[in-house]
């Protein structure tokens, strides 16, 4: 039997081993060719009486990350083409049949009459875990790299190859829905307790244990196909079953604000499927899956959070011709919260770190931050004491700049003052190797100005982290006017090494992300001063798809910082550059009320020592007026939050700050949480069309002022019927 993606062997005991090992990929993914191979394996095992059963495992470090979602993108294009040629009905029939091929294949494996077992190592996610769930037995390696899960909701889909039906039959319905809603990756011990795998064992033993299960008389029948099978939470229409669905619907509404049709489809598919035999349940699941696969939310999220993310993580913006850099040691100057966090993520990636501050005590305090973070991981069972010791051994805390002598990259994270940074740059360059790269982690100061203090400005680059560094995936790599290709390449190689996603932006005040976030905060401030009830501001922002409301977010980043930025902008660019209403609010909060945010326990919210935060009652007095919430247009409030950010993204493109729509979209979602279901700031505009977006901007500008006026680029795109992605593709072809 010839297989392109598997090795297939049968041992002396008659147990087959199918080892998934795609020759041209670093990780196994499900493709049409893989599906063909799996079909041949099922036929071979089922048709050969000498084969007692089959173990499916991986020949790589990980089992598989799931399906190649570009395959699903291609299915959408085929649908559109067929609809033009043969009509909507024929296209939809084709689309449905094609989209459920994997589900039918897995069901064929499950019912072929021979036992199949999955031996899982590393990550096993999405369609790959659905394959494992279709097997009759699952053994997972117990090492810390192993994860299983169904994360499809994170790209606007849901498990459409039987995953929703099988999970809902393996564990209580409420737990299954939570798993499907969240799409989290699950560790082996938890997976076993959830009945997702039957065994966890050392990696070297997983194949042997899977074979032993087959030889020990493993049944070639899923529990739900056995006579007398009962659902874990009883029938849907039973007292126990009906306790689940009202709560599940409420949780769905609370968590999604009805913005994610895939999660709603999960509710439908599980609710209906649990009332049907498995084959009919799978058909119902496939119908919902085909419908969701054609949704604009899925198309936008797949493009941004799968395709574009992968391309950026693989170095789409890396200069061609610059050799790959191996970063062995990184210097971090400034052991405050940001610098200490940068040191942690760097050391956590296995890179040596020199952490410098003004004296030994300050440097040690910064290193202690890594000790705390690792201790938290140990307490959660995600790391061992030896891991903490090894990480701390990679961090050298010192006040001595001479320790930077053998660093490949040095990053400053000191106070946001040009004079302080200039002094640090001079000290660092005096100690650094001539070929080392210098990076500045600044969130407000233009990189070109800072590079003017450097002896080697072509080796100077901005590396802007987001707080908290250990959790935030985005890093903005900022090009000064003098930044050379090597500096950019090293910065991108470093970001990849610490397992974060980079976007490359050109220099400007606020760069890209902070400009958009600043607009979001400002809109919340202006709504407050208009008299929109504070609770309504926060709730409507979440209804629009933002992770937190603007008032809560401002408390987290500090209200006095927002005031400082407003004052600095006014000093450099003049009175017209700031909104006087926003400035008035911030001055009142900081200078008159002493409310700085979470850091001093009082901001837009009060933060008691015990109990939950609550909105400060005094906000109504600052606003001076209160509008009737029932008279407000909720849809317009939602639009204001999203449009102000997307419009700033469009301005960033026009000004040449962002040059690639992929970076604008990816950066907006993972950097500041812009409504993921839209696909990002520019996809939000493309999704409704430039003409409709310009009209919406003009409507908002007429009601709320010139900050909503569409820029010249958008007006030009509206006149020509262009999209941001279409313009980018055209520019690429022209080049």
From TrEMBL:
Pfam families associated with the record: 3HCDH, 3HCDH_N, ECH_1
Pathway annotation: Lipid metabolism; fatty acid beta-oxidation
GO MF, one annotated term: enoyl-CoA hydratase activity
Annotated 3-hydroxyacyl-CoA dehydrogenase C-terminal domain residues: 510-607
CDD domains: crotonase-like
Cited SUPFAM superfamilies: 6-phosphogluconate dehydrogenase C-terminal domain-like, ClpP/crotonase, NAD(P)-binding Rossmann-fold domains
Keywords: Fatty acid metabolism, Lipid degradation, Lipid metabolism, Lyase, Multifunctional enzyme, NAD, Oxidoreductase
Domain 3-hydroxyacyl-CoA dehydrogenase NAD binding, chain residue ranges per copy: 329-507
UniProt keyword Transcription, yes or no: no
Alphabetized Gene3D superfamilies for the sequence: 1.10.1040.50, 2-enoyl-CoA Hydratase, Chain A, domain 1, NAD(P)-binding Rossmann-like Domain
Reaction equations catalysed: a (3S)-3-hydroxyacyl-CoA + NAD(+) = a 3-oxoacyl-CoA + NADH + H(+)
One of the protein's GO biological processes: fatty acid beta-oxidation
PANTHER family referenced in this protein's UniProt entry, alphabetically: TRIFUNCTIONAL ENZYME SUBUNIT ALPHA, TRIFUNCTIONAL ENZYME SUBUNIT ALPHA, MITOCHONDRIAL
Family under the similarity heading: In the central section; belongs to the 3-hydroxyacyl-CoA dehydrogenase family.
Protein name: 3-hydroxyacyl-CoA dehydrogenase
Species lineage: Bacteria, Pseudomonadati, Pseudomonadota, Alphaproteobacteria, Hyphomicrobiales
């Amino acid at each position: 039997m010839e297989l392109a993606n598997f090795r297939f062997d049968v041992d002396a005991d008659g147990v087959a081993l199918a080892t998934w090992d795609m020759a041209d990929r670093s990780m196994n993914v499900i493709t049409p060719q893989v599906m063909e191979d799996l079909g041949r394996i099922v036929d071979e095992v089922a048709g050969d009486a000498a084969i007692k059963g089959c173990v499916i495992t991986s020949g790589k470090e990980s089992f598989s990350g799931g399906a190649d979602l570009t395959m699903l993108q291609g299915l959408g294009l085929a649908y559109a083409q067929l609809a033009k040629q043969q009509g909507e009905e024929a296209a939809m029939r084709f689309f449905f049949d094609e989209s459920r091929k994997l589900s039918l294949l897995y069901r064929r494996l499950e019912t072929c009459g021979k036992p199949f077992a999955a031996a899982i190592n590393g990550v096993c996610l999405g369609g790959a875990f659905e394959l494992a769930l279709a097997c009759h037995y699952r053994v997972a390696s117990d090492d810390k790299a192993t994860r299983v899960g169904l994360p499809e909701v994170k790209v606007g889909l849901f498990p459409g190859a039987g995953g929703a039906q099988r999970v809902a039959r393996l564990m209580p319905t409420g737990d299954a829905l939570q798993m499907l809603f969240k799409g989290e990756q699950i560790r082996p011990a938890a997976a076993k307790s959830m009945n997702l795998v039957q065994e966890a064992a050392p990696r070297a033993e997983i194949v042997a244990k899977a074979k032993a299960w087959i030889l020990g008389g493993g049944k070639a029948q899923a529990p739900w196909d056995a006579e007398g099978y009962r659902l874990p939470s009883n029938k849907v229409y039973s007292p126990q079953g009906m306790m689940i669905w009202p709560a599940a619907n409420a949780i769905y509404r609370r968590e999604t604000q009805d913005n994610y049709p895939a999660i709603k489809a999960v509710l439908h598919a599980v609710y209906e499927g649990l009332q049907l035999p498995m084959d009919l349940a799978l058909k119902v699941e496939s119908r919902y899956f085909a419908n969701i696969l054609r949704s604009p939310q899925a198309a936008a999220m797949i493009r941004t959070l799968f395709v574009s993310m992968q391309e950026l993580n693989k170095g789409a913006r890396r200069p061609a011709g610059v050799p790959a850099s191996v970063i062995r040691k990184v210097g971090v100057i400034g052991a405050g919260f940001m610098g200490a966090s940068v040191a942690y993520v760097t050391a956590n990636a296995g890179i040596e770190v020199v952490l410098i501050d003004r004296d030994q005590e300050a440097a040690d305090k910064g290193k202690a931050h890594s000790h705390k973070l690792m201790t938290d991981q140990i307490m959660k069972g995600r790391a061992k004491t030896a891991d903490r010791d090894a990480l701390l051994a990679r961090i050298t805390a010192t006040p001595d700049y001479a320790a930077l002598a053998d660093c490949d990259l040095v990053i400053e994270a000191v106070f946001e003052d040009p004079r302080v940074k200039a002094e640090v740059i001079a000290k660092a360059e005096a100690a650094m190797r001539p070929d080392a790269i210098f990076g500045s982690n600044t969130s407000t100061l233009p990189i070109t100005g800072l590079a003017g203090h450097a002896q080697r400005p072509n080796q100077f680059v901005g590396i802007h982290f987001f707080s908290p560094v250990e959790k935030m995936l985005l890093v903005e790599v900022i090009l000064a006017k003098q930044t050379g290709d090597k500096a950019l390449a090293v910065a991108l190689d470093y970001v990849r090494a610490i397992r974060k996603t980079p976007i490359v932006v050109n220099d400007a005040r606020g760069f890209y992300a902070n400009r958009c976030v600043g607009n979001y905060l400002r809109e919340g401030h202006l709504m407050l001063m208009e008299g929109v009830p504070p609770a309504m501001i926060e709730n409507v922002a979440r209804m629009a798809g933002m992770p937190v409301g603007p008032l809560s977010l401002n408390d987290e980043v500090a209200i006095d910082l927002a005031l400082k930025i407003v004052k600095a902008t006014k000093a450099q660019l003049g009175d017209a550059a700031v909104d006087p209403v926003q400035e008035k609010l911030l001055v009142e909060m900081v200078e008159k009320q002493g409310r700085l945010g979470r850091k001093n326990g009082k901001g837009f919210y009060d933060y008691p020592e015990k109990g939950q935060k609550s909105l400060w009652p005094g906000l109504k007095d600052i606003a001076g007026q209160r509008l009737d919430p029932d008279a407000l247009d909720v849809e317009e409030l939602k639009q204001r939050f999203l449009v102000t950010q997307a419009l700033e993204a469009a301005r960033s493109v026009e000004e040449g700050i962002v040059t690639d729509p992929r970076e604008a979209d990816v950066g907006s979602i993972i950097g500041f949480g812009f409504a993921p279901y839209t696909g990002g700031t520019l996809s939000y505009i493309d999704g409704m069309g430039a003409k409709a977006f310009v009209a919406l901007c003009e409507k908002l500008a007429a009601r709320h002022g010139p900050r909503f006026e569409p820029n010249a680029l958008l007006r030009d795109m509206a006149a020509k019927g262009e999209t941001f992605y279409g313009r980018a593709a055209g520019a690429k072809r022209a080049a």
